[in-house]
Hints:
Layout: H1 2-17, H2 19-41, H3 45-56, E1 62-66, H4 73-79, E2 86-101, E3 107-115, E4 126-130, E5 138-141, H5 142-148, E6 155-158, E7 161-170, E8 194-199, H6 200-210, E9 214-222, H7 228-234, E10 243-246, H8 247-261, H9 263-300, H10 305-338, H11 354-377
Parallel strand pairs: 3-8, 5-7
Antiparallel strand pairs: 1-9, 1-10, 2-3, 2-6, 2-9, 4-7, 5-8, 6-7
Helix pairs in contact: 1-10, 2-9, 2-10, 2-11, 3-8, 8-9, 9-10, 9-11, 10-11
Amino acid sequence: MGSIVLVVRLVLADVRRHKVQAAMLLLAVTVATATLALGLSLRGVSDALYEQTRAATAGPDVVALSPASGPAVTPALASLADDPEAVAHHGPYRIVYADLTTRDSTSSSVVVQGFAETPGAVNRPLVTSGRWVRSGGTVLERGFATALGVGVGDRVIIAGRSYPVVGIAVTAATSIYPWAAQIGPYGGGSDYSGLAWMTRSDARTLASSQDLPVTMALDLKLRDPAATEAFRDAHRDSTIWINFRSWQFTAEQDMVILKDSQPILVVGSWLLSFLAITGVAALAAGRAVEQTRRAGLLKAVGAAPGLIAAVLLTEYLALALVGDTLGLVIARLAVPAIASPTASRIGDAVGVTAATVAAATVLAVAVAVLSTLRPTRCGPVVRRPSRR
């Protein structure tokens, strides 16, 4: 017990005498562990958010889109649902290409999907505010509405017609804003655009009244969600022009957009972890030089090597674990904001897991060990008497 008390007193005395150095170590460990925990927590964020949204909205495995026109289009798309691998479907339905203007004159391209007032078994957008489509009103995709600053009760002008926004919703059937248009008008390239929903009759009226471009689409749920490529290959020789968009493609497009808009997701956990560990190693090396003198003084007054090691390790370990705790708290608070860069998806990031806590704690302990190792191995400074 006496040795423990002595070690604690020596640690407290040294911290009081070297407050700046102790604070620097605490700050460095806090930043390093927070960075490491944040980096590890960001892995797979985009996939996790997409999967949660897909599960909540009965996202389709394949979306078949045809920019062709004529009476044969709808039956040809509908026949895809007869494939034995298709277990459920939604549509065919219209996608109308138009322009949208808000009350503050903000303009944007928009694709309007004509849906039933009662959602089906596949592609059921989740209403996060307001209600689902009704005659004369429109529902906006949440990422699009957020970018426009529009909410339920506002009015928007679509292709020259004014519509009240009756709801805000999310879907996994299209990429996150601003890539709602999976193909462009007449099958060409797609510009940045948002997504809106109307009733089937309103979408049909909108398209016919303004002679707007229309694409027909069909959502499919497959027996094997991983067999999207095989399904597409089986229908490659269709009598009409059909583009297929798989759920894997949509998930990949999400990641592409998030990489452009959130550089921290590009940096990722490996680079953040590397920077954290490199910074800690440099800190430990710098403090080792400083504490070598202290270890020598303790040896000079008769302290045993074990006592010296216990004092230094206890001090560094206490500071490192406090910094580790602070870093993990910071990471836990920061992950939800950083890992949810789009309103087009729902759900929470995995956050700080037990494995992440363990990795950060190992890093903190490594700081304490590296800072202690060199001073305790160095012998006391022996000064030879000067000759006169």
